[in-house]
Amino acid sequence: MPNFSEKPTIIFDMDGTLLDLAYDDFIWNELLPIRYAEQHGCTLEQSQQTLFSFYQQHNHTLKWYSSRFWTSQVGVDVLAMQIEQKAKVAKRVGCTELLQYLKENGYPIWLATNADAAGLQFKLEETGIAQYFDVIVSSETIGHAKEFIEFWQILQQTHTFDPENCYFIDDTEKVLNGAEQFGIQQLYSILQPSTGKAPRETCKYPMLSALTDLIPILEAQASQQDKEQKKYA
């Protein structure tokens, strides 16, 4: 008989999902090019071209998410720069409301982010959202980025969960592809990860406009489970 009493595990990405990606866009696309140009005595255009080449080379790799790696590559203390601008870190609309709802209704809530451990720590301190999570994991500690099935395999070995009774919400399609390959079936993306950019027009996965849009989805599943449970009663 199915276990109808077991609530699904809800796994969230952080940047662009729970937090506004406008902060990261500012750091990497605006501020770092300025700091790199100052450090290396080049024009802003040259700096942007150099950094864009670096970004393309390492995009979607574990190095891409490492403050230490970028500091070694560009000669700018990237972590210090991020912390300097931490006041710009902002939760997306509905973040607290959704997390509070999940907590009050007994859902296991996990945070799985590609942010390195140091970047994760200061964002958790700045936003105060750590209190809601039962499990918090950085890809740096796993040893693989979330884009790859190995991340999910190691995560499951470390923290047991059922991929068939799990929701994963992430703003990056390649990350969702990795989760799908692993076997997670309930996958959702984000319509507008950054308030500084227009909403997306297309995505392979259903997109949440507001984070709280997840609530009626979960309530519909719970209602369906109640109906199924009555069949076995």
Largest sheet at a glance? 6 strands, parallel
Number of helices: 10
Q: Taking all residues together, what is the mean pLDDT?
A: 93
Which CATH C-level class of the largest domain is it? Alpha Beta
Q: Give the N-terminus to C-terminus distance in angstroms.
A: 10 Å
CATH architecture of the largest domain: 3-Layer(aba) Sandwich
Shape: elongated
Topology, number of strands: 6
Order of helices and strands: EHHHHHEHEHHEHEEH
Query: Runs with pLDDT <50, length 5+?
Result: none
Structural class: alpha/beta
Percent of residues in helices comes to 40-55%
Going by CATH, the homologous superfamily of the largest domain would be HAD superfamily/HAD-like
Radius of gyration: 19 Å
With strands numbered from the N-terminus, the spatial order across the biggest sheet is: 3-2-1-4-5-6
How many discrete structural domains? 2
CATH third-tier fold name of the largest domain: Rossmann fold
**Content of β-strand:** 5-15%
InterPro entries: HAD-like_hydrolase_sf (IPR050155), HAD-like_sf (IPR036412), HAD-SF_hydro_IA (IPR006439), HAD_sf (IPR023214)
GO biological process, one term: DNA repair
Protein name: Haloacid dehalogenase
GO molecular function: phosphoglycolate phosphatase activity
Give the gist of this structure.
It holds the Pfam family Hydrolase. The chain is an alpha/beta fold and 233 residues long.
Keywords:
10 helices, 2 domains, Rossmann fold, 233 residues, alpha/beta, six-stranded parallel sheet, 48% helix, 10% strand
